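Internal QA ticket QA-208
Title: Verify multi-chain structure generation after dependency bump
Assignee: T.L.

Test input:
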Amino acid sequence: MNTKNFTMKTQINNLNRLILSATVIGGMLFYSSCEKDKGPIFVASTVPVSFSSTIQPIFTANCIGSGCHNTSDATAGLDLSVGNAYSNLVNVASGGAGGNYNTAIRVVPSNAASSILWNKVANTKKYGGQMPSSSALASGDISNIQTWINQGAKNN
Amino acid sequence: MKLSLNINQSGRVGIACLVLAACMASSVTVNAQSDSTKTPPPAPVSGTFRGPNLINMPTCKIIDALSFSIQHRFGEVLPGDQLNNFMGMDLGANMRIALGYPIIKDKLQVEIGRTSAGKTLDIALKYHFLSQTEGNEMPVSATLYADISMTTIKFPAVSSNEYYADSVTPFTYKFADRMVGYYQLIIDRKFTKNFSLEVAPTLIYQNLVAAGKDNQTYVLQAGGRYKFTKHDALLAEYGYSFNNRDGSMVNPFSAGVEFSTAGHIFQIVFSSTNSILGKDIYTVDNANILKGNYYIGFNLMRIGF
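Actual output:
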């Protein structure tokens, strides 16, 4: 009799646990599939972005520290210091990351999505990890780089 | 974009699967009780897989006591750079720690984990509703698995140039955008005393995806284990996603060696991905092993304290 009571109690406990678990996970399932959002996409501004006054200062502030893309270290053969950055980027093939993407172009004018530079700063992982590796650029800086490339990557 | 309170099709599928599992599990329990007075039920096969995870993908195994696990992947090993970064050890790692508990013995387990990639918290429920039997009356085991994860990373600032995919509605991040659901039916079979296989059709639902992608990703995974001594085994798993594939998409592959004792499982892992959660493995680009890029890592689990 005691064994039968014990078995029944165990089954009721199991049923309670099952109902509780199903309720918890059911609620989470609902919330984890309640949206169907896609985005964000960037709609380029018609205001021209200047390389010298907008883009180069981003490189100077974030990319040319010791051991990085300054003239003396020029990691991965890329120098982003003033006077050298433009000629190192636009229509130049990369030789970095063990030859994994050495035929890709650092900046393809009018095509940010195909440019290594934008893919690296936007951390799309298309060409390895994010740059700067320590922390991402501000969203506005990434947007400005994207706009500058899509506007033709001019040396303006 | 308006907050939609209507649950979409994928959500319905997930909930329907759970309700179905509950019904099936209940009926299995009731049948087993009524039959027990007549003939003993067929003995379930044991030891199909040693742990609740093969390498990354879950198995049908329900843990039998409180468990603690660490899954660790080192940084990407690049061709020609193996020694410089010591097989990825000098680079940023991805790591998950988790606690698991069997809510109902041999039936239901819960696991709560925290992963460094995306600062992600996740809670997983695994429901085992069908067991392979020794006499082959039931040829396979089957389990439902649901893992709900939430990134706690700070959303980046949104500029005034950013829109939803319609290019009209200004973009804003919502709390629900942090959530991803990972739903799986796991079917496994022990073919011989040393060899087991599993397959797992999987649905991943992301509340927020990049423009041009589907919110749901459909995946088929397969994995196997071959025991070469009483406690040691070789492991492998592979997966294929049917949509959301970029041109350069590499199908994830992992292999490993497993060493186990009564209460511990230790695995050394070689993989094309440093992701640990399934929702990342099939939605983030993998390294191309054929080009010499790969990851090394390990899994460590203690079951019972």
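Spot checks passed. The radius of gyration of chain A is 26 Å.
Status: verified.
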